[in-house]
Amino acid sequence: MLFCFIVLITGVLVTALVDAGTAIQAANRADTYAAEAARAASIAIGPVPTGGNTDAQLAATAARSYLDQAGATGTVTVTGPGIVEVSVTVTDSTPMLGIPVSQTRVHTAQLLVGVTTGKGLS
Known about the structure:
Flp pilus-assembly TadE/G-like, 2 helices, three-stranded antiparallel sheet, alpha+beta, 51% helix, 122 residues, elongated
């Protein structure tokens, strides 16, 4: 009887750990996709952002292109000259219980050109 109880509890714990790992992996992928898409968008704007509509279109296109190539879904928002915010949601099913798990991460990238002061600079 005790053996059956131990096996049951062990099975529940293993299932919970494996399925929790899926949520962690989804969060990591969403984080990576959002960061890289934001980086691609800020690079597409170029070294001298004008803040115009053309910059916003270039940034959004570059970020969406990265997300498409990665197979991820998300939103891209240009919030200012040289500033891009990307939100990505990754949804997976847990391997043992088949429960859908969604993780959303947001990254903002700002292209800084000619910076002479700030953190890390002396």
